[in-house]
Amino acid sequence: MSVRDKYEVVIGLEVHAQLLTKTKAYSSDENIYGATPNTKTSVISLGHPGTLPRSNSTVIEYAVKLGIAVGSNIRERNEYARKNYFYADLPKGYQITQDTTPICNGGSVQIKDNEGNAKKIKITRIHMEEDAGKSIHDLDPFHTLVDLNRAGVPLIEIVSEADIRSSDEAYQYINELRKLVCYLDICDGNMEEGSLRCDANVSVMLKGEKKFGTKVEVKNMNSSRNVKRAIEFEVERQIEILESGGEISHETRSFNAEKNTTTSMRHKEEANDYRYFPEPDLQPVIVTEEYISKVKNTFPPLPNELFNKFTKEFGLSDYDANILVDEKGIALYYNELCTFTKNYKTAANFVNGSVKSYLNEKAVDINDFTINSKRLADLITIIDEGKISNTVATSKVFPEMLKCNDSASKIAIANNADYIAIGAFNKSKTKKTKYKATLKDLKKFRTITNKPIIAIGGINQYNYKNLLLNKADFLAISSFIWKNKKLKPIEAIKKIK
After folding, report:
1. Contact 369, 359 (CB under 8 A)
2. Which end of the chain has the lower number of beta carbons within 10 A, N or C?
3. CA–CA distance, 471 with 445 (Å, rounded to integer)
4. Rounded Cα gap, residues 190 and 368, in angstroms
5. Predicted TM-score (pTM) of this structure
6. Order of strands across the sheet with 420-422?
């Protein structure tokens, strides 16, 4: 048994989601990313004396949305509090947040444990608060610069129970939360831009112990992968200290992604260090059952709902379904696609393959994809009908569909097919189709393509001549030759002059 196997890892995560509101949490300042520093501010976000904040109703709506999605209890009476601490990028010297009355209590997010079994990570609370500004350390070697555009931007903080037992579980939990906020359209989930930020509380204890070890908070992680890396390093660091007879310090540490290490920032604050007290300038917010029901009625299909639909109703594998639901736009596109085709597997292969490859290559969103679900379904239909192969569809027809608005059938005929098969012209045992081709169809195709045309379906000694006279280049004859009860194959062939 390795040293690592002696210990159990205990992890709780605090995730901050920046909300997609037009204005800030307590002022009319624009909530926009990437603006010129210090241009999206006002006397309220700058903390000037005598200014009064006011609640943004959309912030409340978005908090309720997430609470409903994770199964939280939504608090009726919500009060605000001041959290007092000093940073250069916190102009008021305090943060407006919620202390004893978070808007959401309880709930859970489902992941899979190390054995692949479903596991629920319980949520302690979800509360509303405002963001601080941004300190910039890398533009000037001698000074720290401060951009206050972000000061007052609305956040919701999602605090999990200490239910997570590995870095893999933490990785899954963050990704599931990210999917939820994106599906609900309350946050863009962009960790690189700071829209979704995560602090990890990590401790280790000997297996079998009931008391958790000393907790260390790790900050400064801008991707779910970095959360996983930071936890792995911190676990190893703590185990090494304990194995050498040392003690873990209750502190806040920062993760350095380049060096893959954590470094001490400060001694971990306790709640009383922040001197919480009720916010005197904001009235309590009342959230009624009627309001909760109204918000719930606006819900889109959520990831778990679509996953169950794709696996149980459409018969997809867990693997295919997980890839589809990972992005809201992709999942909804596939769901719409399946209203036009019943070949759910081929549809999934196209979306997870050709469609996603194109989007990644061009760095565009599914909303900018030029092939709508109906056109892609038409391509799948002509594959199902045997008119083109999968290879021709993906390598020739699909690329042309990206360039124009023509149907898949027209593109296949005009540009990319090696030959055109038309039929069935007659009743056929081998070609089951709802559509019966006519000599008029044959003539029409001859005018729009110079590709060889093969006539198929129920061809025999009595009807083949008309097909040749109407410009069929080849005849595909099966049953008349191979299933003829009166003539041997060689005799049947001789009948076709």
Report:
1. yes
2. N
3. 10
4. 19
5. 0.81
6. 420-422, 453-456, 474-476
